[in-house]
Amino acid sequence: MPVFTSDFSPTLPFKNGHFNTMYRPLFMKDICSYLRKRVTTWDNDFIDLDFSLVGSKTLVLLIHGLEGSSESKYIASTSKHLNSRGLDTVCFNLRGCSGDDNLLLGTYHSGKTEDVDFVVKHLLQNYEYDNLIITGFSLGGNLTLKYIGEQAENISPKIKGGIAVSVPIDIASAEIEMDRLKNKLYIEMFFKTMKNKILEKAHKFPAYNLDKDQLFKATKFKHLEHLYTVPVFGFDSPEDYWVKASSKPYLSKITKPTLLINAKDDTFLSKECYPFEEAHDSDYFYFEGPNYGGHVGFMNSFKPTENTWLEHRIERFIRENIQINLL
Description:
The protein is an alpha/beta fold. It contains 11 helices and 9 strands. The chain folds into 2 domains: about 5-170 and about 245-320, Alpha/Beta hydrolase fold, catalytic domain (Rossmann fold), CATH 3.40.50.1820; about 170-245, no CATH class. Helices cover about 35% and strands about 15% of the residues.
């Protein structure tokens, strides 16, 4: 039942998925001033939370994508917009993404919802909010959907819903798409920081015993998963990781109003990442598949004031479907 017909209709150059994907990080100038709180984790590491507060009783937890942070343009623009509508926000910088390397060998991966659970419980126990909404982008969206589905039977009543944007909900098939030539530039951009981080971990943790030659030769996510994700996080293989980390199997378990927005021209996503059937069969999981938007793009035109469709769409879902009062 909850499948939305999208009203996103950009001008001509932004109807190209690659153009829309790259425009936001390259040309948008969104910044947000944060108050950082460093939280010590149960395993003697730390997580940096960046707050932007306006005195609300509702807090929106924002989770960035692969190699992103609170400085990512989509995080800053969403935070600013929600602040302007009277909502507090906090960005969960995944381990190793806040500008300071985390203390342990392990950082983060697409299915590491134990960190999401820790952050959610910390926020609920230490701050007096009536409502918490979880919003994630790309990898952070996968964490959002997986967490809300996993915790369906035990989820706090203060968690009122979630929103996820540009999410590879089926990691196995999405990685096949990422391996295609059309995504070569994006892979190179991701690998530039990811390989450096893995090398730094190998330097700090000699027992890790990284095969550096294989790291330098790596051209696919599967290669990095074999070298880092699988041994560090205890998976049997990359394939085992794909199955266990994907959020798609959890969509049918969701019991809070939750929206997924995946553009049909997102070159990162496979056809398995458009869950029309799951949304039709659910009373709580909503899906919207705009024809355009790229990957976490959703830019309308060259005019900055017109490039807020995504932020307004998030706001509208919070107001109309999660039913939180906004300014």
